[in-house]
Amino acid sequence: QVQLVESGGGVVQAGGSLRLSCAASGRTFRSSAMGWFRQAPGKEREFVAAISWSGRSTYYADSAKGRFTISRDNAKNTAYLQMDSLKPEDTAVYYCAAGSDLLGSVILTASGYAYWGQGTQVTVSS
Fold first, then answer.
1. 82 membership: H or E segment, kind and range
2. pLDDT per residue as tens digits for the range 8-29
3. What confidence tens digit (pLDDT) does each residue in 65-117 have?
4. DSSP 118
5. Burial group, residue 41, by CB count within 10 angstroms (0-12, 13-18, 19+)
6. Sign of the CA dihedral with 62 first, then 63, 69, and 74 last
7. Exposure of 55 in the CB half-sphere (CA atoms within 13 A)
8. How many CB atoms lie within 10 A of CB 75?
9. Beta carbons of 11 and 86 less than 8 angstroms apart
């Protein structure tokens, strides 16, 4: 069982940066693949970034490549999403998720994650 709590959201101007954190409780965090998803008003939840349990593998949506960085600190049971060069179209509720991958790889689909946080709002003004 993993419980996830996101933080770090807020309002930022276009071109600015935010760092989202996802604090996890439960002993299985260190063996869990982590992911970040987002959902804008009127749109479906979409994949943003993923990281393997070891941190050695990462994967990004095209919209996040070159601007966002996913990382994790297993000693702190925390995953992060560093977001730079933010755009108004990045405005959404951001969710972190945890899941198990037997191959130790990343998980790219929402259905692959068993645990979800409550979400944190990110608003980018133009």
1. strand 78-83
2. 999 999 999 999 999 999 878 8
3. 999 999 999 999 999 999 999 999 999 999 999 999 888 899 999 999 999 99
4. -
5. exposed
6. negative
7. 14
8. 7
9. no
Q: Is residue 97 within 8 Å of residue 4, measured between CB atoms?
A: yes
Tokens 């604090």 map to which residue?
A: 23
Structure tokens at 53: 């349990």
- Edge to edge, what strands does the sheet with 68-73 contain? 3-7, 18-25, 78-83, 68-73
What does the DSSP assignment read for 25-42?
Answer: ESTTGGG-EEEEEEE-TT
Residues with Cβ within 8 Å of residue 56, at least 6 apart in sequence: none
H-assigned helices in the chain: none
User: Which amino acid, residue 121?
Assistant: Q
User: Token pair 């003004």 is at which residue?
Assistant: 125
- Unique residue bearing structure tokens 């925390």: 78
